[in-house]
Structure formats: C-alpha cells, structure tokens
Amino acid sequence: MRAKITYFVLAAVLVVYFVLAGSRGVVLIEQGTPVTVVFGVAVLVIPVIGAWFLWQTTAFARNADRLARELDAEGGLPVDELVRTPGGRIDRDSADAVFARRKAEAEASPQDWRVWFRLAVAYHDARDTPRARKAMQRAIALHDGRPVRS
After folding, report:
1. How far apart are CA 39 and CA 19, in angstroms?
2. 22 phi/psi in degrees, rounded to 5
3. Reported CATH class of domain 92-144
4. Where are the transmembrane segments (predicted)?
5. Cβ–Cβ under 8 Å, residues 98 and 81
C-alpha cells in the first residue's frame, strides 16, 4: 500500500510539473520571436514525453496488478520462499535458486502467462528489473491474447 501512495504522490507532482512546464512553453511561444517560439516548442515536448511515459507506466502497473489479482484468486501466486539476511534483504543464492526453477517452468510452458508472471517476480527478486519488466510485459500480452514480442 505504501508503494501505491508513493506512486500516486510522485505522479501528482509530475503532473503539476508538466502543467507548469507546458505553461512556460506557451508563454514562450506567445512572445512570437523565432527564438522564443523554438524554445517554447522545445519546452512543450518535455511534458508531452513525460506524460506519455507516465501513462505507459501507469497502464503497465494496472495490468500487472490485474494479473496478480487473477493469479491470487486461482491460488497461483508465487510463495515467498526466499531466505533473507538479518537485515531483511533477499539472499542472492536463494533468489538464484528460485529463479532457476521459474526459468525452467517458463521454458517448459512458453505460452502460459502464469509462469511468465512468476518468472517476472523471480527476476525482480534477483534484482534484474529490466528482465522482470520484459517478463511481465510478456505475461500481460499472453494473458490478453496479444502478439508477444521476443
């Protein structure tokens, strides 16, 4: 729950930033000189790219959460079987062992979104965020019946 609150607060701050930056871009364009118009357009591009990125990230998080709820209803969420250090961090060897099992499951059933979801969690536990995201994107695509990018 804490992560969701943090996400929404940061998203709200970004939206405020986009509005402020966009208004500055409009003011620059209204100046009417060639230099200020070029700068104004350049300043407007930043909020547009940022808003697109925020939208994509929010959609990804909503879709992953939707899959997690469905998997939880089926009783298929991965069980936290990881060994932790006294400080609460995940033991690397433990995460690697779970990851090896999850990867073998995904290789055995490449069209099952559930195994890709669990593999994404294993990647995340192994601190490999880019691969965790790709595995989750694959799980979402398989679940929704969309073509899967390799």
Report:
1. 16
2. -65, -40
3. mainly alpha
4. 35-55
5. yes
Q: Give the tens place of pLDDT for each residue, 74-133.
A: 998 888 888 888 888 888 888 888 888 999 999 999 999 999 999 999 998 888 899 999
Rounded CA separation 109/105 (Å): 6
Q: How far apart are the first and last CA of the chain?
A: 33
Q: Evaluate whether 102 touches 112 at the Cβ level (below 8 Å).
A: no
Structural domain spans, the chain: 2-74, 92-144
The whole model's pTM is what? 0.79
